[in-house]
Amino acid sequence: MQVNVEWVDARERLPEPGEPVATATFGTWPPDFHDQSVAGEDYWLVRPMVFHDLYIPASSQHESEDESHHHNCFVDSDGYIRYPSGGPSDDHITHWAALPFLPGLTTHVANGHEATEALARAREA
Known about the structure:
Protein name: Amine oxidase
Shape: elongated
Helix content: 10-25%
InterPro entries: AQJ64_40280-like (IPR048167)
Distance between the termini: 10 Å
Strand content: 35-45%
Strand order of the largest sheet: 2-3-4-5-6
Number of strands: 6
Number of domains: 1
């Protein structure tokens, strides 16, 4: 099974809010904010993230940890926030692509009996 990926320049268009996407992230590791002569190497890598038009970091009590609000940002599974180029993050999202659907389905998520049956069909194909 092959999937074609259409990369979108994050400066030109953003995903729909709540959409899980693959992101191309550019940055420098390790970063050094005071002396660029000792900063690390540039990197560009692909990461799964979710796009938010409004993101409020939540604690276990579902309240904002620091009462901050983030607009038009990408958030990874660890809660790390990145922005498109020009945003306030140290590393930034250059491009994004929609994630493919599950094999044989038209959705990103299947639960319960539907998940078991869909996986069996995909393995038989």
